[in-house]
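Researcher: I'm comparing several assemblies side by side, and this is the next one on my list. It has 688 residues spread over two chains. Same procedure as the others: predict the full complex and return the structure.
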Amino acid sequence: MTTTPESANSQTGNGSGVAPSKKSEHLLSLRGIAKHFGAVQALKHVDLDIPAGKVTALIGDNGAGKSTLIKTISGIWAPTAGDVFWNGEQVKVHTPGDASSLGISTVYQDLALCDNLDIVQNMYLGHEETRGITLDEIAMELNTKKVLKELSVSTVKSVRQLVGSLSGGQRQAVAVARAVMRDTQLVIMDEPTAALGVSQTHQVLELIKNLSDRGIAVIVISHNLTDVFKVADRLAVMHLGTLVSSGDISQYDTTSAVELITTGESKGAPSSLASSR
Amino acid sequence: MSKTSPDSTESTPRFTVGDLFKRLRTGNSGLIPILVGLAALVAYFDIRSHVFLSAANVTNLFIQATVFILLGMAEIWLLLLGEIDLSIGFVAGIGASTAVILVDNKYHWPVLVVLPLALAVTTLIGILHGTLVIRLRLPSFVVTLAGQLGWAGVLIFLIDHQGTGGVVSLHEKVLADLVNGNLTPMWTWIVSVGAVLLAAIFMIRGQAKRRAAGLESTPMAIVALKIGSLVIAALVLVLIFNTDRATFIVLHGMPFAIPIDIFILLAGSFILNKTKAGRYIYAIGGNSEAVRRAGVNVNRYRLLAFALAGFTAGIAGLLYASRLGGISDGIDGGTLVLYAVAAAVIGGTSLFGGRGKMIHAVIGGVIIATIYNGMALIGMSAATQYIATALVLLAAVTIDSVARRGNGTTR
């Protein structure tokens, strides 16, 4: 907590370690999350609130702990210390299964798609619909078309195309569509635009906005501040394993964001756990 | 890297003649180029030898192809995962010797007990290989290379232990008839017509269901074309099989080996295309980490593929013993495995996992048998046969790799 300024809403308690109020409008709240790998302290003490239906951009330099944090949220490993609250209720997220049963889906940077399978097969991988022992291809294909249409993904020619033949933006779209297909409330995306060209980045940003329009909360890790300011409603900045600042995007500009990323502090920027609206 | 213009999902793409050419170029043509190649081989041998297309020789060719086909199918289970089994020839040999020794020799166990037992043995060997690969994280290449030596040793031990001079011959009727017996001409017709009818019904019904659900479907003309070529192929084969192919006795009808091949082909294709297990086998070959993150128990399905490979190799072994009329300690499992892999790859199965079909082993097996049989007929040496097979294999891998590159950019 050394570099973290005193919490702005400290009247609710001493900042960290205190449960968010019961009628919390926050979908996900993290309190005092820490993660050690042996002697290495990757996350020191993270307090973060993720409101429903908003896009939260998680930014920070390499090694700031962004990936460690999202892996903690998505259950790749359990935190060493700290509490996780989902809709105000304390929950344990220790396996990817825990996360997905809460309604948290993660789209990793490598997308985890099988190039040799088509779009439908990838969308349903691990959750195939069956009739008896045989796969129900027609139901899966119809629903895939429906989900892609709802997300306004209109650039794929056929849902029976192999994923290996898709462009980077289309692949990202398939991965996101798969993430939101099963009653998802929070989608975590790790560097979704890192490998994309201009028009495809635009497509993916539109897709992210589309998700939040549909009431799905999104956490986006990104190094690209232009993209962040285009798409995010809220900003959370990490520095050396702590969350140094979070708040509404309007309270930041590129200069203060860069300052926070590089030094961990910036005059006038909201501190960690500032009021969420 | 030019992309074909992205259309809206709404527009239902229709398959046109132009699409057909594009599919040919990008390696999605299915079996057409391979079948053209086979036709060229057949034409060549027909010109060089009058015997080649005789009923007796064609039937013989299919019997020769059976072992390549079945071993190829066994190999495809593992090639799809991106694994390989180098010991499959000797595993088949173990299955064969188990069956021959127990059913005949001094034991005379009932054949209905012995055949499943032999298949159980080879399945267990597959599971053993799979367990070593999965639990100890050893490369399948190395495990089965050790297997090739190890099972060759076990085979020699088993056969020499019988004290019959390194050869156990087969007298039991059922096992001997697996390859050497024939359906009557009447049953040949019934089986063939039945198989074609079933295939036609499945094709038409599958497309009708898609149309009913409002999904894009293959035009009826193309379905009819497929069914038509199936009918012609079946007709030609039935006429060949039903021709009397012996000189002094009457010998006609479809060899039992053919329906066995077809049954294994259908069962394998069903598992691969219609069940979750098949879907996961393809997916693991494509990106096993993605499958793991999707919450699938990857190792269970890898083990299943190893078991199925062992099982299929066992069937190949039984048919091999049947054809040889016994089993010797000198069977060349090392060459058999190369033919098995070659059959799969020539047919179009990728060596790198994730792409392939059971039918590939059938086409590839027939091509290898054609080379093997035709070259012997026109009096070419073993040296030439090996070299020719090697060239066909190289050509197949090259076409495969070129097609894959074409596939990545267009389509």
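Model: For your comparison table: Residues 115 and 165 of chain A are 8 Å apart (CA to CA).
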